[in-house]
Design goal:
By secondary structure, this protein is an alpha/beta fold. The chain contains 15 helices and 19 strands. It folds into three domains: 137 residues, 3-Layer(aba) Sandwich (Rossmann fold); 77 residues, Archaeosine Trna-guanine Transglycosylase, Chain: A, domain 4 (Roll); 220 residues, 3-Layer(aba) Sandwich (Rossmann fold), CATH 3.40.50.300. A hairpin with a 2-residue loop joins strand 12 and strand 13.
């Protein structure tokens, strides 16, 4: 049975390709959606770009036929604009002047005038609640949704290995079909391991004996950079050893690194340490610079309203990066803040020489970034479309590091299943060009208080 999907503006602003995602069903755009797209078309950043992209798409469909009667889509369905149902009565406490309520009125009119099932598709939770109250079926846009956070790919696992293979691991590695895990009933089975997945190997005759490895071409091999100390930093737990391994690999072998985990697990700190190691401590000439972007709720939308040039505008948003750099540049906790002017001078030198640069996320669009160590901090605040745009900007010899916590999202209409970080993690899983690691709660190294808060709050 053909369904009618009424699409809200916020779906199109986040996923401008959404109109092609409804298969052979009928897609309806209320007239108010066109008005809102017109309002957003001049907006700065991703919202404005997506609004213009949808408007161009609608123009292509208009040239094919009458949008009021409906035009056929490549997906097999139809698209039409609905301007009727202005006389449909809403409950007295719902004003007809409110944009969302005008969309509800279209849904009610369609439901009353036909036999097809009418479904409102919106990212707005409150609008979905109001729709349910009025007896209208409402759904989130699920095309970009991935698994719930606890079921998402973590890039790591723990397995058991026979004692004799465990002893020979560092020299020969261990074939992936020779390791096993136990299910809830205590039965053993061979797990499916992805390419580049990190592994904690446990000797089956003594589970206290462990070694760290990584899957490569069907074999679990030892870590290449286990004994490294980038910029004087030494790993403190298994997660940091895995993180160090992914970051230290050259761009031609590991061009994309995805790191998920709560605050305090040293994601940003370690990423900067490796970058500084390769550019300052032991220059490898792998990269020309470290480029840092830190998107959040204001980064892409409100930056144009802040005073100053680009660097002055994004400076407040880069403060977490500066905090990490202060610790890296002067490793002595006792001496670090005794001379604030000297510390600031060191920071100014790094930025002045162009070793580290900071840019707004929306300035990356359309560029080809080469020979760059690119850090996207707080990547959970990007949309799937944005994250695709970032990754496809990678030129030759560029390494992209996506960092973030899917449980800490500041951007409206994104959640742990629809943000760009989780989207990239699930879709790049198993790629030989992508290395991933999810830091665990126990690997929080920020402070004793931070760890105590994790346990109690």
């Amino acid at each position: 049975m053909v369904k009618i999907y009424v699409v809200d503006t916020n779906v199109l602003l986040q996923a401008p390709y959404a109109l092609d995602s409804f298969e052979d069903n009928s897609v309806v755009l209320p007239m108010v959606v066109l008005e809102e797209l017109d309002h957003f078309k001049k907006a700065e950043g991703e919202i404005g770009a997506n609004a213009r992209r949808v408007i161009r798409y609608l123009e292509q469909q208009r040239l094919k036929g009458d949008l009021l009667r409906g035009v056929e889509l490549e997906s097999g369905g139809t698209l039409r604009v609905e301007k009727n149902f202005v006389n449909v009565k809403l409950p007295e406490d719902l004003s007809a002047e409110v944009m969302d309520n005008r969309i509800l009125r279209v849904c009610m009119g369609l439901s009353e005038s036909g036999k097809e099932q009418v479904i409102l598709v919106t990212k707005d939770i409150l609008l979905r609640i109001k729709a349910q109250i009025l007896g209208i079926c409402a759904e989130d846009f699920t095309t970009d949704q991935v698994l719930e956070h606890e079921n998402q790919y973590s890039g790591r696992c723990a397995v058991y290995v026979p004692e004799e293979l465990f002893k020979a691991f560092k020299k020969k590695g261990v074939p992936v079909d020779q390791v096993y895990v136990l299910n809830e009933e205590g039965e053993s089975y061979v797990p499916k391991l992805e390419e580049n997945q990190f592994v904690i190997l446990k000797a089956d005759q003594s589970a206290k004996k462990t070694q760290l490895g990584r899957v490569e071409s069907g074999v679990i091999r030892k870590l290449d950079y286990r004994k490294s100390s980038p910029y004087g930093i030494t790993p403190r737990n298994a997660g940091q050893y895995f993180l160090q391994e992914a970051l230290m690999q050259p761009a031609d072998k590991a061009p994309l690194v995805i790191v998920k985990g709560m605050a305090g697990t040293s994601k940003t700190f370690y990423s900067l340490a490796v970058g500084l190691e390769k550019l300052l401590n032991h220059p490898t000439e792998e990269y020309r610079r470290i480029l840092v972007c830190r998107p959040n709720a204001q980064f892409d939308d409100d930056i144009g309203f802040l005073p100053g040039d680009e660097q002055e505008k994004i400076s407040p948003l880069m403060r977490p990066i500066i905090d990490n750099l202060e610790q890296l540049i002067d490793s002595s906790e006792e001496e670090r803040y005794k001379n604030e002017e000297e510390l600031q001078g060191k920071l100014d030198e790094i930025f002045g020489r162009g070793i580290i640069q900071a840019e707004a996320l929306n300035y990356i669009r359309g560029r080809s970034i080469v020979k760059t160590y690119l850090i996207i901090d707080e990547a959970q605040n990007t949309t799937p479309d944005q994250i695709k745009g970032i990754i496809t900007r990678a030129g030759k010899d560029t390494k992209i590091i996506l960092l973030g916590d899917p449980n800490q999202i500041d951007r409206p209409f994104l959640d742990e299943r629809t943000n760009g970080l989780s989207y990239a993690s699930e879709h790049m899983k198993g790629s030989p060009l992508c290395w991933q690691i999810t830091m665990t709660t126990e690997e929080c190294e920020r402070s004793a208080l931070a760890m105590e808060a994790v346990r109690r709050l």
